[in-house]
Specification:
By secondary structure, this protein is of the alpha/beta class. Helix content is about 45%, strand content about 15%. The chain has 10 helices and 9 strands. It has helices at about 30-45, 80-100, 115-120, 150-155, 160-165, 175-180, 190-205, 205-220, 225-240, 245-255; strands at about 10, 15-20, 55-60, 105, 110, 125-130, 130-135, 170, 185. Strands 1-2-3-4-6-9 form a 6-stranded mixed β-sheet, with helices on both faces. A 3-stranded mixed β-sheet has the order 5-7-8. Strand 3, helix 2 (about 80-100) and strand 4 (about 105) form a beta-alpha-beta unit. The longest helix has 18 residues, at about 80-100.
Length: about 260
């Protein structure tokens, strides 16, 4: 690895893109350059009609160790970590959640601190059985951030969330899957193949409905049941007038695979 190597690798597949964090010598810890590169790549994927899903992965032996504490200024006595979050991690999590296309995350090795938060912010997260998830913030006198305090209790409940946040324990990928923190744990040798198969499958599904699914699931976190029922009716009304709905119904009636062509909104 040379100093001039790209910090993010972008590979176009048929219907989706693979974005690979490429700072393996630092366990893919983020600095300002990687933040900028990934947000730009997500924006470009969002604007490309040929890209219908995104796969986020990490090069080397780990997914992401979180913030690179060797970045200049982070250990200064007067450092403003709130500003660091606002211009970096918070913007990244918002970009992942707001992307109108599904994001699959493939986690091997370490997913620690804000690196774990990024994995949890994706729509579908696959992990190796021996991956290592850790809310490591407490070990350096900080709280979980980058959305972790919002996501953890919603994914695994308040009791487990508080324990992971306060103790900073490391759990395996298999444990993370068993408690509902991630979608599924798989053998290390099959991680990327399964993640790419998921992306290929998502790329064949109706893009507008997938984008709407992301929106309504996020809205459900704050809505009452009555509000969510009303939102579902509104969204379903619009989708019912889409070309993908017409194609899906026709394919069902004709007993053939559907060919969805609609773009996300």
């Amino acid at each position: 690895m040379t100093e001039t190597a790209p910090v993010l690798l972008v590979d176009q597949r048929d219907g989706y893109r693979v974005l690979t964090l490429n700072r393996p010598q630092r366990l893919n810890a983020f600095d300002a350059g990687l933040h900028a590169a990934l947000r730009q790549a997500l924006a470009e994927a969002g604007e490309d009609p040929a890209c219908r899903a995104v796969l986020l992965a990490g090069a080397g032996r780990g997914f992401c160790a979180g913030q690179d504490l060797a970045e200049p200024g982070l250990t200064d006595p007067d450092v403003d970590l709130g500003a660091v979050l606002d211009r970096g991690w918070n913007a990244l999590v918002a970009a992942l959640r707001g992307l109108p296309k599904p994001v699959v995350c493939a986690v091997q090795g370490v997913a620690a601190g804000a690196g774990a938060s990024v994995a949890l912010a994706c729509d579908i997260t696959l992990v190796t059985e021996d991956a290592k998830f850790s809310q490591a913030f407490i070990r350096i006198g900080l709280i979980p951030d980058s959305g972790a305090t919002w996501m953890l209790p919603r994914l695994i409940g308040p009791a487990r969330a508080r324990a992971l946040a306060m103790l900073g324990d490391t759990i395996s990928g298999a444990e993370a899957a068993s408690m509902g923190l991630v979608y599924r744990a798989v053998p290390a040798a099959s991680l990327m193949a399964e993640a790419e198969a998921l992306c290929a499958r998502l790329a064949r599904l109706p893009a507008e409905a997938l984008a709407a699914t992301k929106r309504v699931l996020d809205a459900a976190e704050d809505n009452t049941l009555a509000q969510q029922l009303a939102l579902e009716a509104t969204v379903q009304r619009d989708l019912g007038r889409s070309t993908d709905y017409a194609e899906g119904v026709a394919a069902f009636q004709q007993k053939r695979p559907a060919r969805f062509t609609g773009a996300p909104e």
